[in-house]
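Look at a sample.

——
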Amino acid sequence: MPAYDEEALLPSTLESIRAAMATVPWAGEIVVCDNNSTDRTAEVARACGARVVHEPHNQIARARNTGARAARGEWLVFVDADTLISPEILGEALRLLESGTVAGGGSVFRMDCAGNRAGSGLVKAWNWISRRFHVAAGSFLFARRDAFEEVRGFSLGVYAGEEVWLSRALKRWGRKRDLGFRVLDRHPVATSGRKMEWFPGWLLAGTFLLMTVFPFLSRSRTFCRIWYRRPAAARAS
């Protein structure tokens, strides 16, 4: 789990993960990668029972890779710090990995976008793309460790959308071995809609559309600034 200034949401996220892990027959661990936070993220994560590693360079892909290197399991499940998962979605993902039929996969998600038409539209658009083209959202992505390592993990050349690049790499790796890539849709994960409150709908929609049409824009930290910048009010809350 990559985490940058996430002390407020970490307890509920980690609680949902622990509850889900208690229902599956496989042993596991929770690794939180503190991505150079300025708040109590690391302290809160440890208090909640997670193992904490540190990544000083603020980049989501780099934080995910640092956490993956520290993890000891043969399967990797990436969950965002503002995402709640259910026992059902975790169990379904792990059973697929155990079956040996997939290289990895992801899940559709739901978000509280009440009264925000742009936000609701973006969620529907992404879930359609995710199902249609078999690409995972960063909020929940799972993979075999050997596949993840052989494709060299998340691309360090991008500052957002790293889950899309990894999905493509895992699909290529899997095709050579007759393994699939599954996007699960029976038990959507629940992701925070806070960006819908922080930024205007036109900015979010425009960023999403431009990155979809021109994927190379994900290589620009300036273009991807909404993933790294928070309004002052959000930082103070």
Remarks:
- The mean pLDDT is 93.
- The first helix runs from residue 10 to 21.
